[in-house]
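pipeline/complex-builder :: batch 7 item 3
reading input block
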Amino acid sequence: EPEVTQTPSHQVTQMGQEVILRCVPISNHLYFYWYRQILGQKVEFLVSFYNNEISEKSEIFDDQFSVERPDGSNFTLKIRSTKLEDSAMYFCASSDGLKRISSYEQYFGPGTRLTVT
Amino acid sequence: GEDVEQSLFLSVREGDSSVINCTYTDSSSTYLYWYKQEPGAGLQLLTYIFSNMDMKQDQRLTVLLNKKDKHLSLRIADTQTGDSAIYFCAEKGGSQGNLIFGKGTKLSVKP
């Protein structure tokens, strides 16, 4: 069964450093998402991406964040200058976005745990 | 704004039924979802319900939707130890279908 994959599973970085989290969505999917979950808190939406551009973003997704689909398979989240409060589990998700009964059914990757020290 | 609330913990005995409850605020939500997260794993879509339905059954899972009270529940019949996980309720928000999650209910199943 096709699945969303994410690398690395755990990333430790120092405050102020740039990190890139990588995701490979399911191959025929068209919509891509990043979410994050700070320990003990809710899973929060960050950004959605369709047709090579951001379609929606939350207040959390400020100028330090960016997303890219550098080739036909990868979808990346870049955090330019990490802060301690960026420590969280980051989930990538994808959906085919077709107009059918299970519209926007999102499939999630296993997550990348980011620890900022 | 949109919000989804769940109780944080539920403990049941193996073989009993589990009922996980959720309330949401956005009355225009068209889809409501239940996701399961096992330790160290991602979020797995368990089931969903469309807002014009009251109930959906899928094997051991029954989803009940009370749209008037904005209340969603997930019933797991004959709960097994393998059902131990965190269960997230989510509603579809935004125009591109981004999900709004609750904090998750940690289900512990005792043998």
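note: The CA atoms of residues 1 and 35 of chain A lie 23 Å apart.
queue -> next item
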